[in-house]
Amino acid sequence: MDMFTGVGVALVTLLDDAGDVDAAATGALAAELADRGMQAVLACGTTGEAGTLTDAERVAVISAVRDVLPSQIPVLAGTGATTATRAVELTAAAAQAGADAVLAWPPPGSEDLPGYFAAVAGAAPGLPVLGYHIPWVSSPGIPVSALADLPIAGLKDSAGEPDRLLAEIAHYPGSTYVGSSALLALAGPLGGTGAILAIANAEPELCVAAFGGDAQAQHKLIDLHLAVREGGVPALKRVLAEQRGTVALSRV
Q1: What positions carry a catalytic annotation?
Q2: Phi, psi dihedral angles at 176 (to 5 degrees)
């Protein structure tokens, strides 16, 4: 069974003017995005600047997001790490904070992907685990050929490679969530399970339409997609500051 279908948001972590994590503002953004059509919220992922957060800040963000969302909207927590030991610690803490599932990239160069994901799953029995293919963070990533043998419920693929996405949709029996906003109008109509997107923080409705096969919506997302691809989280936070008046500070 799929954890969710449709579009979810890879949530930014908002900061206050002093550069401290503003969990309440982050939760408020999550609630608004759920009202605007998001089917899931990923907290403390790469878009959420997870690598810059303390353990206490991670817990505060996950808890704040879970507290404000209706029960039918799952909260995913990013728990990927450079070692299995650290990923296990983050996964256990995320479960305690109220996460409904976890998303984990493997340690760079990992040679035992089944063992790594089994350890992550064991840290939070009963919670679904999604693998995360993001090769510029965790090289070389997760090969498509390895997916079927991993103890995961599905995969978020942010590589932005159409051929790889096609192979996943056609041959991987688990859930496939596209992480690149460049491929929405391809992924949805061809049977992808859903999407987990950074730019959905700013344009949730267009992301939903594009995943539904609306080529015009996909076209309207081009400039934002390219800006965030080039400028990363700081660029996305500047867009949100212009839209919502939120603080544009980031830690990356």
Answers
A1: 132, 156
A2: -115, 120
The CA-to-CA distance between both ends of the chain, in Å, stands at 36
* Cα–Cα nearest to 79, from 65, 68, 69, 97: 97
Q: Which of 1, 72, 67 is nearest to 39 (CA)?
A: 72
Q: pLDDT tens-digit profile of 26-39?
A: 999 999 999 999 99
Name which of 154, 206, 164 is nearest 187 in CA terms: 164
Q: Are 172 and 147 in contact (CB under 8 A)?
A: yes
SS3 at position 10? strand
Per-chain mean pLDDT for the chain: 97
Whole-angstrom distance, CA of residue 41 vs CA of residue 10: 6
Residue whose tokens read 């996405």: 165
Beta bridge partners of 197: 9
Q: What CA–CA distance (Å, rounded) separates 233 from 133? A: 18
Domain boundaries, the chain: 6-244
CA 182 to chain centre: 15
Q: What is the rounded distance in angstroms from the CA atom of residue 29 to the CA atom of residue 14?
A: 9
8 A C-beta contact, residue 125 and residue 92: no
Q: What are the C-alpha distances in Å from 121 to residues 10, 13, 170, 197?
A: 21, 25, 26, 23
Helices 84-97, 55-68: inter-axial angle, 10-degree rounding:
40
Query: What kind of fold does domain 6-244 have according to CATH?
Result: TIM Barrel (3.20.20)
The answer to whether residues 44 and 63 touch, using CB atoms and an 8 Å cutoff, is no
- Reply yes or no on whether the pLDDT at 1 is more than 70: no
Give the sign of the dihedral formed by CA 2, CA 208, CA 11, CA 132: positive
Question: What is the H or E stretch that residue 178 is in?
Answer: strand 175-178
